[in-house]
Design goal:
By secondary structure, the protein is of the alpha/beta class. The chain folds into 2 domains: 10-124, Rossmann fold (3-Layer(aba) Sandwich), CATH 3.40.50.620; 184-328, Rossmann fold (3-Layer(aba) Sandwich), CATH 3.40.50.620. The protein is built from 13 helices and 10 strands. Helix 5 links the parallel strand 4 (95-99) and strand 5. This is ethanolamine-phosphate cytidylyltransferase.
Length: 354
Amino acid sequence: MSEDKSRTVRVWCDGCYDMVHFGHANSLRQAKALGDYLIVGIHNDNEITKHKGPPVFTEEERYKMVRGIKWVDEVVEGVPYVTSLETLDKYHCDFCVHGDDITMTADGVDTYHLVKAAGRYKEVQRTAGVSTTDLVGRMLLMTRQHFRQGPLEYDVGHEGSSQLGLDSDARSPYTGCSQFLPTTQEIIQFSDGKPPKPNDRIIYVAGAFDLFHVGHLDFLEKARAEGDYLILGLHTDPIVNRYKGSNYPIMNLHERVLSVLACKYVSEVVIGAPYAVSQNLMEHFKVDMVCHGQTPIQPDADGSDPYTEPKRQGKFKLLNSENTMTTEKIVNRIINHSHSKASSSNTLSYQSHS
């Protein structure tokens, strides 16, 4: 049966998508829900530099990150900063979707004025409690505070907190900055909820996956290629802090859950996975292979290898994604970027046009 173009509602989104986070992913999820096929246009480095200063991430990194989001059907590279009717028509899109914030060109013109005037514009709500600006703020304002341990590890119900963790009562013990507190509904919206098929080869990976980036994406693509169903175990904040130190993690466990659920290679997420991969865990999830990337394997609290059991079973494999990006490198890049912008007296503005 041939595809009927008139019956397929094609949706257009565009933006910089610099430092892609789950807020961007959530807006794309909402945009996809308004139609059947989602096309995302991404501005190149020159276009962004012209209108708002150089991006933190290169166009190639930004293209790859958006392609990794599971609701995106197609990516168009190097689109104009102002969304035109010609662009919508060229890609047979019915309308354009953007968040409920105003984005301007260098000349102060609303980048969506043309599609708004033509009635081919729809708005979705931005994800309250997270923005690129907020994440950058966490990195620039890292102050080591008391770490939550034991029974306080999951204490996220801050008394008096009303703005999804944006007020002064909801603070990360690691960065001293605001936390995003998702509901179960948001996790359900991000999750596929599909169990593995009877004969699926099940792959398990575990880690922090803090500030989800292209290095993570390339590793998960390799891990997914090892089987049919990829389960990702996320370590709790205190465990991540134990092996990462300093003020890590930048993103709390709940934020990291949404970040990895938005990735098209991830089938299921274990929230608060144990650091050591046990026989019980492997039997429970029917794991065929446990994979780890090129980052050094830190010993467990008792000094033991967390992968002792999968290695004993002959079900452990080291993968090389050939991508050297790390969360630490991103933090350094952000800090250097902000310092260079500040020294050139530019306005520090990381708010994403997306």
